Amino acid sequence: MINILVVDDQKHIRDGLQAMLRQFPLQLDHIYSAASGIEALELLRQHNIQLVITDIRMPDMDGLELMAQTKEERIKVDYLIISGYSDFAYAQRAIELGAKGYLLKPVKREDLQSSVEHVWQEIQTRLSLSRNFEQLSRRARETDRKELRMYMQGAAGDETWIEETERQNAELWRSYRLCLLREELWINQPGTSSSHSIESIAYRVFGRQACICLQHRPYLILAVDAAVDPGVFPAALKAEQIEAITAMTGPQQGLADLPGSYVQVMELHRHSFLFPDKLCLLPVHIERLEQQWELPHEELYALFQLTGTKNSGRITQGISSLFHKDVLQRYHIRYTQQLCRAVVQMMEEYERVIRPYMGEEALDLDSLRSLFDYPGIRDYIQALQQLLLRLNQFYYEYKCSYRNSQDLNEAIRFIHENYHKPLDLAMVSNHVSLNYAYFSNQFKKNIGKGFAEYLRDVRLDKARRLLADTDHKIVEIASMVGYESYKSFTRAFRDVMHMQPTEYRQLMRRRQGREGDYQDTVL
């Protein structure tokens, strides 16, 4: 698309030129018009115009003055000049000022179209070359940044390369700081600002020549002018409502110090997890941290002794105590890392015990491997606490299930050994030392029937065997299986078997007789 400005002090000429231009098979975006050079200059300042078609002779500011003024103001635009035969000397001067051609009055449609198409082709060629050059320049810059990033991260760099690279930005490398920025929001979370917006603020604070981006991911790392107060950049980010933790090294001298500076800024970045309230962490903030310590093994043991209990509140308090900021901020970040590993290892030991009983449930303990996978220390502690509470619940249910299984097995054994005695739910629950209501509920939940129904079925099963295999009287059998009266026994038997005990005995005797006759026949 092309924007064209038609300049002539005569309206009918302007209108005629615009009408012809609109008939051409060109991708025209907008056609502006001006009655003088002064009006045309104002339009050129306000709009992105690629081509001006102007008369040479006009009042106030003629075409030559317009061309000279735009050249002085560095307004990039091409010109086609309209002139008469008597103005040929002016046309020559216009060509010296850079005009792409001139048209004789009266302007012919074919000449105008040919000239405009020629200029448009030149503009397209320049744009294409400019884009190619920009791509090459960008690739060259990206290559330079990649080499710098690799060198910063420990790749070898020979002296010639170091000297040449340092010379390209000698002022910056003479005295610089490395600056690492970590946004407090999750990457790709809605509302998260991009690293490029932070980078643009850095260029505004330090200037293009005093700021180099060395890395975008996973954290933005910049080399910035050490002469600028380290608090200025974090303040600029805060003013733009960008919440980012900044780690900044002390002043460094020379590109040869870049790898060591990278180690220092990464160390500061790790320590920024201990100081979430500091928007800018400097070496002075960590230089007095203690380097020797002993992990609180007794407190850890006491915490995990609570696992499998209903003391979730005490577990939460225990985590808060172990990871209290006053404790963590006394020591080097390695203390916090070792403490995290110790807690996760103990969680793994407990989880290993109950894993066969968890079914499809699982604890994602791998998510706790690295503190630095989280936006901050608070997020890590929260995730750790939630998983520990889930482990506590799983372990509690496992212990209850195991204990219930043991108790129920003992209750069933007790019933089978004492079914012939006066027996009720209270006696059995007391025997296994469980609350009456709790035992009743657990018995039905795990056995599938209530206590009374289960005891009845045990007694009747024994009664059926005695009826089939012995000659005891039915009243005797009723007493032998725990019924206090013949009447209650026969009623229970009839409800289950749908026949009287005497009928059941006769049925079993006939069946046994038929089986005996069959065996005699076979033999």
UniProtKB/TrEMBL annotation:
It comes from Paenibacillus borealis. InterPro entries: CheY-like_superfamily, Homeodomain-like_sf, HptR, HTH_AraC, Sig_transdc_resp-reg_receiver. Coiled coil: none annotated. It is found in: Cytoplasm. Residues 409-507 form the HTH araC/xylS-type domain. Residues 3-120 form the Response regulatory domain. Transmembrane segments: none annotated. SMART domains: HTH_ARAC (SM00342), REC (SM00448). Keywords: Cytoplasm, DNA-binding, Phosphoprotein, Transcription, Transcription regulation, Two-component regulatory system. GO terms for cellular component: cytoplasm. This is DNA-binding response regulator. The modification 4-aspartylphosphate is found at residue 55. GO terms for biological process: phosphorelay signal transduction system. One of its GO terms (molecular function) is sequence-specific DNA binding. It comes from the Bacteria. Gene3D superfamilies: 3.40.50.2300, Homeodomain-like.
